[in-house]
Amino acid sequence: METTKPRTVSSIGMFDMLKGAGMLAIVLGHTAELYPLQLSNGLSLTAFLVFVYRETLMAAFFIASGYGFRKRSIGKCIHQQLKSLLKPFCYTAMFTTVLHFIIHYKTFHYLPGSLSESIKVAGGFLLGLPHTATYFGQEFFSCGPMWYLLALLMGWIALDVILNIFPERYIPWAVGGCALLGWGASLVWELPFCLIQGAVITPYLYLGYLAKRQHWLDQPLSRRMSCILWAAVLLIPAAAFATGITDCVSMAEWTLGPISILLDGLAGLLFVRLFLRLNRHRNALVSFFEAIGRRSLYIFCIHTVELTAIPWYLFAAKYADRPVLGICLQYVLSLGSIWLVCALLQRRRDLVIKLFPARRHTPQVHYTPRH
């Protein structure tokens, strides 16, 4: 007999609200970091308020991605990830570099300087740098928020390799070892192509993978597990106050080393559960967040272009004495530009479909048992 118990998770869009709220928080974070308000212990107030749970949010994103993970052959996994993630990365790199050159030349009217700076931007994308670094004696800029796509690509492949070559009982140890290897490498050298970040986020993908297999998101938490997850949430800001810095995966910085990586993952799992609970209440706000979440890939790409190509530091300098106003104005401008480009891309897609209607064939549907 089929159960009538309502399911907490049941559709492919169940994480849209989480992604939508996350996108708004990410844009706000990148805006606020240009307007630092220092506390007495050296910690930036804006950094603390906006970034204290930044890596928890990123961990939640990776856990949500891992929920859709399926074990494949290593070759097929690599091909799939390159096809789905590398293509938007390359398009974003091209548009960012070109727009960066145009805007900087129009702003400063100095061709050699604009060309030099744009080469640094292009080099950062080619090397897949999560933050500004020096290679071959030359400084290159970061690839901006696109580090997330590269880290996801590397982490997905790493998890698939582990699942294919290790016996079941050794998989958790291999996943943990992968994260430790990435963290250890960050102490020595900044590897290109977000290899460090890809290794460190592998446990988050594995958490999502286990959450689906063992129905963690369908069942209530035990009292013990609930206390562990909430303890992680409380320890993260405590560590930030104690050390004067916040975690930053893109910079390969963790306040408490591997302990911070673990805390971010546990708190991220709680974030996923909380957003799924909020998702049950259907209202206009939830629908708004979900609409943003469905366009999260577009937003990541467009935000990378505007964040890197536009010299926002000039705007921030004008409002250095009025940081709150500067944050609000820049945030509105950033979101407005992202919305405008998203709308144009959607209209372009509709126009192409209208002008060049493709033949639609009804494919044969084959039903296969799912295990």
From TrEMBL:
Task: Enumerate the InterPro entries for this protein.
Answer: Acyl_transf_3_dom
Q: Which residues form the signal peptide?
A: none
Name by which UniProt lists this protein:
Acyltransferase
Question: In the Enzyme Commission scheme, what number(s) does this protein have?
Answer: 2.3.1.-
Compartments reported by the entry: Cell membrane
Which family does the UniProt entry place this protein in? Belongs to the acyltransferase 3 family.
**Domain of life of the organism in this record?**
Bacteria
